[in-house]
Design a protein that fits this description.
The chain has 19 helices and two strands. The protein is mainly α and about 500 residues long. Strands 1-2 form a two-stranded antiparallel sheet.
Amino acid sequence: IRRLLCCCCADRPMTKKRMNMYGELFKVLHDNPNFIAILARMVSISEIDDFLQTIMFSLYGSFEPREEHLLLKMFQHALTLEYTNAKEVGTVLRSNSAISRMMTTYTRRGLGQKYLKDTLRTQIELLFDLDDTLLEVNVEKVYRELDASGVKLPPFPSNREDCLYMEELRAIVEERGEMLMEITDRILEAITINIPNIPFGVRWLCKVIGKQCKLRFPDEPQDTVYSHIGGFFLLRYINPALVSPEAFGIVRQKPSTIVRKNLTQVARFLQQIANNTTARSLLLPQMQQFVDMCRERLFNLFDDICNVPDFNEDLKLEMIDALTTSCTLSITPNELFFVHTLLTKHIGNMELQGGKGAHFISLVESLPKPSEKFGRDTNGSVCLPLQNSSETTKLSPRCSLREKKATRPLLSRVRLERTRVEVALKTVEENLKHLHDKIESYKLYLDNVRGQVVKSHNFQFGFDRGHVCCINWVSAFAFAVQMFFFSFFFRKECQRWITTDRVC
């Protein structure tokens, strides 16, 4: 690492101390996704691509559960900031911002791609078979199309509804409308059937968007909330795959011009249904009835998609587990310097608060000025250890916790070990309390069930004995869980804690 990054500063070479400072900087940035969310709002348009590449594929690119949960937490904080600073309900997530681009990129990862292939392939192949028929139903466009083809039609009336009195025009619009409604119905049915296969992160983001919309605009109708959810799920996830299926690997051949127009028409129709903006373009009564029915189906679909649990407890356990493991980051020098440059440029405007914020600001300010970009030959990936400053200093044998003489490094080690153990034990205590409450609730449920009227005396005896055994099993399971947490995670830490008290 030192060899590859030795010229990161023009005036001073990269030393081991500075490498440790970079490791600590990215450790704090990795474990505090709210810092990234704040920084994302300050990224310029020209910096979005590099920022997206660094955050999505380097900082959180391992696809492990903890990385996934931290990335979703970053999105949650970014959406909170987006809705908090929004002045109007129609301006949220409408611009080509860094967060919008990152959310779109997130939906195109492995599981998201697989869902799109499994759900949309059959319907898209059906559209490929209609390579000689357009699905345009807007009467003005159909009129111009017929007029360009040489069909003799009366002048276009001032009232659009009078267009339906033209027999040729009405017949074409009705035929195309039937095909458009059938294909749209098939797509909605396929999405509804495959709701369990939608990636958890996509569903959870839909839930966060709906929740934040209700909190920021409580007076808006529920249709507005569904419109915002559809703006993410349809506009940024489903519709891009409909319009360009070859880019998502759904089909191999490139669609023809007519097929591309039909794909775009279906995607636009779905989005208009979600946003309730189809009244101007639809004149046929049967199509308007179909839109009303689809809106109800689409809103129920959004409710089912948002019905997912939170992962706060899982993330706590994952962060505890990370205390006992060493973490590394595979990153290129240019990505390292790019993030450092952004932080140096915007750290004064990020308004970070609390002890972590002050510590992060001090880390950024203590680093030297980054160098220019490396060439392609020297910009290879390096493995950057992520660790705290107190963990980066290698302790000599004289710095053992069993040493009788107190020194400055020893006291630093004592404070570190004691803090780590206190935080870890507090988190485990909260999780065990939560588990204990669930067990008590289940015991109360069993007592209520056991007290119900059962006529047969023999059956009553067997019933009670079985549930008593069940209660004993639940108690044994709770005890086993407690022992597992204590022995697996904190046996060594508690031993160090005892020794720490003795040294102090």
